[in-house]
Fold:
Amino acid sequence: MTPSARVQAAIELLDQVIEAARGKGAPADRLIADYFKTRRYAGSKDRRAVRELVYRAVRACGPVPQSGRAAMLALAKDDPALATLFDGSAHAPAPIAAGENRAQTGIAPDWLIEALGASGIAGAAAEALLARAPLDIRVNALKASRAAIDLPEPGEPLAAPDGLRFATGTGVQQWPAFAQGLIEVQDHGSQLICEAIPAKPGDVVIDLCAGAGGKTLALAARLGNRAELIAADTDKRRLGNLAPRADRAGAEIAAQVLLDPGRELEALERWRGAADHVLVDAPCSGTGTWRRNPESRWRLDPAELARLGALQDHVLDVAAALVRPGGALTFVTCSLLDGEGADRVAAFLARHGGWEVEAPALPLGRGRGAGWRLDPYHDGTDGFFVAILRRA
Structure:
């Protein structure tokens, strides 16, 4: 592919990304992979260059662009070399017309910038949400140790006891250590939260929104397979990914429970009021993960944010019913919006008497409402809110 053809390919892909964002369709990564499946002529350098252009444009545009061309023109405005590639040659984008519409640049749509600002995320802290994320791994303590593991590249030791950091794009999933279950990809902030969860060997621990089980596996490793871990979720496909991952990691999961939305306690009846700890890694907007999924900010609107807040309240109420007297729950969202963090904890405490807040033992972050928050700018992690609530 010529450099101009790469720009045209990026424009076509951006059109798909924009349409998917408006219609809550497939994520950008999947669209890019599907695009090149039918274009075998594109070599690895072409695919890498086009992908880079797509994500540069996505990060640059705050509101959803009108089109892929408008998004690419926003980049070209401050990049003369890119602008010259709009030359109208074969497989190239048409020349730039005088006064042609360009997409609006910025961090996010205006309403979302205001919500972040009201939640204490503005200026450099907001800009950091769209920086490139490093690649963090967790050395699986069930099979290896950070001090002794032999990896193809040396990683930067992190505050989490099993954490190592590598450059963006490092192919750790092709390493033998990954295939053997010696390492797992997991953001440093997520690792720290798993370390802070007040569960101990012998406990009954329910991961209520387990997904594919990243935090479930981290807890199994931290507790040395000496806790009764129950992984539950409403998503059959994601939960189905846990068994092979656990097998590879040597993690023992006592039960996997598929939940029916709105009827979760029916499936979890045997643990009602009996769990020592419940982890609520709740569905959220993902504002703390824009470094990895920048187009997700185009998918969010006030109605969706309200829906997610109501869902978080519901899941917290389910968790409360499962916790034994004296037990605890940990509420986590990968969001930096108070509406999905401090406000949800305040609402929970207003609905449920007999619960107290405990400060999590985290070496990074700072307090936010009745919880704790990590963010990319201050901590170099994904953005997280976490609160620990203890039942009397």
Residues 188-391 form a domain with the Rossmann fold fold (CATH 3.40.50.150).
